[in-house]
């Protein structure tokens, strides 16, 4: 006869989720007002996958005065930090898993429409994608299909990224790598 041991709870708390595109669209008026007033300076797409190793704390430390649009497991680095909200808009808008990056693309397209922009790259959005495994390529492909430029990948780069493919991505999309948190916050205009 075997005895089953009940698992012990190791943490408690709440995480607000469910911010797929329809929920964010419902906040459109608040978002426009917050951007125009300067309460929200930038959105940061921090999506993809990140490892649990202590050496990969970049995304935990990157959370500053911005609204984070996320999809994928990178969110586990910051979604329990209690970042609060900006004018009633949650600082972490979680669209789900990497497969839900479609919602992030729709949000970007809606913001482009609402602000009357002709180029998606004129949005106040920074793209900082966690790269850990191949599934994160869905996030990258969704952004590239929209023509998004200046995407930053890290802390490691994809193993399949040959020099030729890297050159095409750099030349056509200005893709770069992340650096240190302090350097990137300055480069992205977040401090």
Describe the structure.
The protein has a single domain, classed as Rossmann fold. The strands form two sheets. Strands 5-2-1-6-7-8 form a six-stranded parallel sheet, with helices on one face. A two-stranded antiparallel ribbon has the order 3-4. With 191 residues, it is an alpha/beta fold. Strand 3 (85-86) and strand 4 (89-90) form a beta hairpin. The longest helix has 14 residues, at 101-114. It starts with 20 loop residues before the first helix and ends with a helix. The protein has seven helices and eight strands; from the N terminus they run H-H-E-H-E-E-E-E-H-E-H-E-H-E-H.
Task: Give a brief rundown of this model.
Helices cover 31% and strands 15% of the residues.
Topology, please?
Layout: H1 21-25, H2 28-37, E1 43-45, H3 58-61, E2 67-70, E3 85-86, E4 89-90, E5 92-94, H4 101-114, E6 125-131, H5 137-145, E7 151-155, H6 163-173, E8 176-177, H7 181-187
Parallel strand pairs: 1-2, 1-6, 2-5, 6-7, 7-8
Antiparallel strand pairs: 3-4
């Amino acid at each position: 006869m075997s005895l089953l041991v009940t698992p012990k709870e190791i943490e408690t708390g709440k995480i607000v989720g469910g911010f797929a595109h329809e929920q964010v669209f419902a906040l459109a008026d608040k978002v426009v007002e917050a951007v125009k007033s300067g309460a929200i300076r930038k959105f940061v797409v921090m999506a993809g996958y990140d490892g649990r190793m202590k050496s990969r704390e970049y995304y935990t430390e990157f959370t500053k005065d911005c609204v984070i649009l996320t999809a994928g497991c990178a969110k586990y680095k910051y979604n329990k930090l209690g970042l609060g909200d900006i004018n009633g808009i949650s600082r972490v808008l979680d669209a789900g898993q990497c497969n839900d990056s479609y919602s992030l693309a729709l949000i970007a397209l809606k913001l482009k429409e609402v602000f009357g922009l002709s180029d998606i790259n004129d949005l106040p959005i920074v793209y900082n994608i966690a790269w850990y495994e191949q599934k994160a390529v869905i996030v990258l492909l969704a952004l590239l299909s929209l023509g998004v430029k200046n995407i930053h990948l890290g802390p490691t780069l994809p193993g399949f990224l040959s020099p030729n493919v890297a050159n095409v991505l750099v030349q056509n999309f200005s893709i770069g790598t992340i650096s240190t948190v302090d350097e990137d916050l300055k480069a992205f205009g977040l401090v």
